[in-house]
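Homework help thread (please don't just give me the answer)

Our assignment gives two proteins as sequence + structure token strings and asks us to describe the second one. The first is just a warm-up. Here they are:
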Amino acid sequence: MDERSAGHRVVLITKTVFLLTLFLLCQLGSEFKFRSAAENDIEVGDLPRGEVAGLPDMLSSLQWRLQLPKLSSYCRETPELSLNIIITCPVDKGTPHISKITMDSLALTGIISEHVAALTHLQKLDLSDNTIHGSIPDQIGQLDQLITLNLGQNLLTGKIPPSLGRLSSLQTLSLLENGLNGTLPPELGKLSNLQKLRLPSNNLRGDLPKDYENLKNLTIFGIGGNYLSGPIPTFIAKWVNLYALFISDLQTMGFSFPKSANLSSISSLILRNCSITGSIPPYIGSWNQLAYLDLSFNDLTGGIPNTFKKLFLYELYLTGNMLNGTLPDWIYSNVRDKGDLAYNEFIFPEPETHKNLPNNNSRINLFLSISFSDFDFNFQWTCDICTHTINNNAAVTSEPKNRTFPEEIMREYCPAGQKKSQYNYNLHINTGGEEHNIEGIRYEADNSTSNFYVNKPAYNWAYSCNGYFLADSTADSRAFIQKATCGAAVTDAPLYDEARLCPNSLKYYGFCLRNGNYTVSLYFSEIVFERNDDYSSSGKRVFDIYIQSELMRKDFNIKEVARHSNNVTIQNFTASVHDHLLEIELFWAGKGSILNPPYFHGPLISAISVTPNFEVNRPGPGGLSKKVIVGIVLGAVLALILFMALMWRLGWIGDRELRVTTVNLRGKSYTLKQVKVATRNFSPRNVIGTGRFGTVYKAELPDQTVAVKMLSSQSKHVIDQIGTEVYALTTLKHENIVEFLDGYSKKDLNLLIYEYMEKGSLERALFDANSSTRLDWPTRVRICHGIAKGLKYLHEDNPSRKIVHRNIKPSNILLDGNLNAKVSDLGLAKLYDEENPYKFIQEKGTVVYMAPKYAMRKAITEKVDAIVLHSKGRLSELVDKQMPNEHVVMKQAKIILELAMRCVDQSPTLRPTMSEVVSELERISN
């Protein structure tokens, strides 16, 4: 009986162990060999050792910093922190293989390793929109099963490997927006299955090889923005499957369209700046699928073919040709969205057709497109035709006229024979912005959003803008004015707050200038492609600079010259004015970034300054002699000096206000004069930070150091708007809040004084290569903890009222000498009103990091600050590659990642409060 019982126990234990083993095998199938119902319960083998070893080697070369999942027996699609690796599993007994790798937009900074050749069954490789550098390895040509290869929007250099011609299965090849050079390899003509070939915006040279005639399956072909020479080959007209064709900026002597072309499937045809001569062929009008047509900046003559009347184009661009003939009245109804016919020589229609012409809301730009051969116009009529307003009362005259717009301006407002003193001798424009006075120079406002503008009533300058944004056809003229999100730390900073943007050609005209030599200063700052704001670190803005029709800079790249986004650069040129007219043109030649968000290519300029290189002599009044004039001036100056000295002595002028007004800083009084001297009279050498509303200076007083923020004169409304709330900040006392000490606001001097933080901002510590501050992992966790405690105090513990910061970002987190974090820039914070949580949604501020509730105009709660803890990062970038790959670090990083995911939950009620965040970070710290 005991033996039988013992035997039963052994069998029971054996069955139990067996069942538990099966259960574990089922649960841990991704870590062991497994069976899949989707694969008919057939056992799958391991990945080949070459692929298991080759993938980590390749990712390591790309500077991929996160740990890969175990791949030895991995057989499913695995999105892992935005990494998408697809491993194809066989339907019968066999070997699985890595088939697809998609790693676009992950901020990869390394190179493409030759180890990619180990992934022999790869069908798709997408590494686009990163900052990968180096060359394309020849070994990619060994991946004979590759169908899609996308390496676009990187920093790749070198030649296109001829070995790519061996990829017989390839259907998509995209290498756009890199720095590839050399000639096009003829071997690519062997890719008979190729459907999409994208090579725009590189440095490729030479002709299109004849071998490409075999690419008859192409549906998309783009090669604009290179240095290709020779005419467009006629064999392209035989690519009958072509849907989109983009060729631009050819270096050639000129050629005409072929006699025939059968591109009936084409929807987008862009042949821009290709030196095409002759007339537009009528057969284009038979391509009824055509929606976008751009033949701008060629040398086309003749009229618009009548066959175009059959087309219903979304966009039509014929800018910068020599087209003539009567402007068709049907052009306005057949172009549905936008059109640009500027810079041509069309004849204006007869008076009875005026009713069909555009009104103020026209989408057709006709600037300098009309040859006024049939009518006599006054100047106002001419300007109105430029801005699309038609005056039907023009009088018919037999006198032929063919004046361009600049000539018309000069004729009316700068007639020949006028006195020298009546001419202008300088010009200062804040392009894209408001009027500003910088160091005694008045920069005129230039904030129009039209394609064309004349500065009235002075009529001393004008601009014209042509073209469209290739990757964003929905963008309208509001995109022509771009606003900076980060202020420039220079004396003329207000000039860089806004800039004028134009897709293709931006021209500025200076009228009625005195003849002679001038210095033309062009002010630039890249405020659109900003790494910290939209991760467009590979975004490049490239354009050419012409002055008086002479090329002054080829392929000018703002970020490259200024060495970073938001940095400034001033380019100085010498220009000769002979006919009292100055012309400045910034021209986009197809190079640089097209597809990088926010998709705004083309020239960008912040200001223009034109000053004479000759002495400006003004005649004296009433013909007085120079000696008399000098005597009068000296006497007046002496009298003025004596009067000013008396006024100063009486304390009516000067710095009396600064000498008698005091501020209280930690229990000690200082005059404003002492504070000003402590900043070395607000010297640039003492600048420790800049922002949209002012500059922060280090002030070294006799027994303490403070930070003084001087608001710009244009930002005084910030103090007026916040009112007593600013002074309520003096009651905020917390170890993780930068202490607000005192403030002063009167006339043109507006100061906010804070405690000084020795280590500067968290942004500088993390991202500035010149910073000596090093943050190890425990310090970073402690900084996160300190930020959370500071926000908790504002949200929950403040004894008066809740405060919502609204602008949490690394530059607003400051570090003291012990690397303790403190929340700063509370001047933009708002007292939170539970009864009216909507009250400041519409108020303007530096809202760079924005919670979803802001964007959706929903009620604001104190939890909006939780969203910004994670809103700017990508999950893959939250683990710094400088951090040690240790178990404790990775475990804590995982917890913080999970906490961050909760902070960005769509529902505010599911996001943690700052108390919960503080508790979680305290648990990690301990």
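The one we have to describe:
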Amino acid sequence: MIKKQDTVSYNEKNSFEHLLNDFLQDKTSCPESSLCTFSHKGCTYIVPEHERNSLITEFSDLRFSWGKQSFVPGQGEAARFFVGSEAGEPAGFSLYMEETICSDDDASCPTAFYIYREGEPEPLAECQEKQITGYGSQNDFSALKSPLTPGGYFLLADGLTDDGENAVFQPLGNYLYLPFRVMESGETLKYPVVKAVEVSRPQEELADGPYTSGIVRMSVCFSAPLPVHREFSALCFTQDWRLLSQDVRLFTGHRSEKYSLHFRFRSELIWMPGRYTVILTHNREPFAAVVFEYDGMPEAAVSWQVLTQTDAEYLWGKYLATDKDWKCIQNFVGMGKLRLRLADLARQSSYNDCCEALCLPELRENIYAAVLSDEPFYAKRLAYCLPLLLHYCTTGRKQVDCAEWLENNSPEDWLEERSGLAVTLYNIQVLCTDRGRDLLERLEEAVEDTFRFWALTLCGTEQEVEQVLSCSPLLARAIRPEYRFGLEQPSVAEVVHSFQQALEETEYRLEAAAQDELARQAVEYYEVLGLWQKDDYTRFVLKGLLGRVKQRVRRNYVPGSKPERSGLIRVKAEDVVIGEWLQSQGAVQDFASESKMLRRVFEESKKELDAMVGLSDLKEALHTTFCRMLFNEQRRRMGLPVEDEGIHHVVFTGNPGTGKTTVARLLGKIYHALGLLSKGEVITTERRELVGEYIGETENKMNALFQRARGQVLFIDEAYSLCTDSSDRRDFGHHIIESLLPMLTKPNPDMLVVLAGYPEEIERMLQSNPGLKSRFPYHFHFADYGADELMQIARNTLEREAYVLVPEAEVLLRQAVEEALEHKDRHFANARWIKTFLVSGVLPAMARRVMQAGSAATVELYRNITRADVEEAMRTQVKVRASGTASPRRIGFRA
């Protein structure tokens, strides 16, 4: 323990020897009748008079702040403040201690704190306070005597004691002191230009496998020598935007000839395969982002970019990575995309920071939100953190169990006291029961009351939230889309790190080889592990993993031996057997069946596509698309970065009868298997069912269509008929297109829209509305069938119904096909034409011939199609075309 000494040195000891000794040693001097002085690094400093006695104060959890900047000594935070445009303004220092303990519990202990600029004798600011046992202590300093400028500073403390191992102060004679630096903010400096980057793992780190904790190295080369008095930091994030590691380099010399920086990212968590982002900052100002792909090899593929203030990486590096409020969601899983959404909302919500700086009142808004997750643990915690993350301006937080609320004799109590509160509701499904209707109505009344400031968050599964919003259109309108937060299935990296965090709660630790084995097995069984909740990881660690460790130790124990403790708490690779645990829990079969199901649907759809006649170019394009979809889904489930996710709406162009509806059905099956569509069937409708006599009616019909098409493929044939070139606004087809756009912009709408029709009209429609065009990234063209392909379609159609074309009939049928192709126009129906020719022409002619013949009934008679049957069909079809009789073409929506 370092104690303030009672002995003093007087200034009358001014012999050369004493002066030299004071210079060589940091020494204090404090006569009772004059100012105290002390020497430090060759300079004598003056300590103003203040109350002193023999009492001393112990403290815990100290935070040192200047304005909005702060650091906690002893916790690895750099002792630095950065001045920019605020330099010269009277910003204040403050020192907060979580708890103080006076050496005399019944008395108050005097303390004094001073801020010095190195080399200047008098303090810039001071604070004298009396500390009381058992209380937190906020110590605000006087205004600065002169503006802060870049350089070295220190905090001097008198009346404190700082205990041993985790001491944050250093002794300075009779005092304690804490050095820190003030540096120029990177906002006002020219940032360096990155020329080259290399990322690697040391070879020795890979000895027990590539997927282990440890070190990743990054070397950054710049185009010019690095300036002095600068801090360079690198923050390494996982693809889920979780801060994995950080490193700092500080240049404080007089001159620098360095062109490069070498960072070391040390992580206790396993380096999983995937994408990592490193944000480089220059005096706390983000200026570049480095992205590297780690695949277990010593060298990683690297790219980098310059950052602007509008980039998400800039926001994370500047404000959120080390923000204490955002640290509360650091270990949440399933929040990769959600963290970026919340960061963007936080940026929009920072308006109140400007109001505070300008001494204006806060802008208070009643915020209504919903958190959707199958994992109640993280859902409730996220809901609890939202007011801090998004600057709600509320003064308190309250969680309400709706099931208990329902049983409460006075359910309106908390509603009456809701002013200023951020309220989270869970077990919300009871609001839709008969008994819960009254509570839901009370809740709606509270939401409608805009005169009382409060915030509300519904917390539940997606099904529960959707159910409540369906029961309450008012709540559905109040909870805007940007405030609906869905936690996704965790990535494979989050699964592995969840295992490690559960193990950290015990005294056991994974060996490097065990870490690699855990990572590999997590990838193998991810489709089951990704559905686990927090308790499942804890149960596996305590009963599965540690159970095997104890069995191994007991099996290898030699009676009378004294094994070392460290050997008893190591988890080895042989102890990690996730498959056996899942087998014992009955989960492996479900995992295997789900994987096989996905592969089976893909293979079946591929076979069905291959069975379609012709369309070779289209098949190749669709095979590539199908493979890409499955490939991206498997990468996503493994936690690897995916280029594009979500629904990709499609455009099919081509003449009628070329297989567009069939391919749309195959897309629905695959999208359903991938979890992008909840049902995957193809639905159809007609223009007359959608276009009303007035605008409101059209919108209502479109809303009804969207409800019916939820989870389905909405196939729109000849969609351009809804958006004519006419400027007549009485044609409400325009409103149908306008109603489509909001649904198309949703990232996961649970609906696939297919626009189909003639190429020219489709292209003209898309060009007329750029917003519509951008929502359809996939375009597939269905070419007309040739004679060989139409003949193959005819044979396939007849074979399915056990009909046989005799050779003479087949020759004549081909002649009919060639004549039809010779005279076809753009409305030629291709496969639909040949099927109609057979079903409406050839087979009726065959039936008349057989029934009029009076011959003995044989299989050949009822199966074989003769030349006469084809001739009769050709005459019938010519008569139909000559008379002008044809089925009217339907416009609008059809399959």
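TA reply:
I won't write it for you, but here's a hint about the kind of observation we're looking for: Residues 849 and 869 are 8 Å apart (CA to CA).
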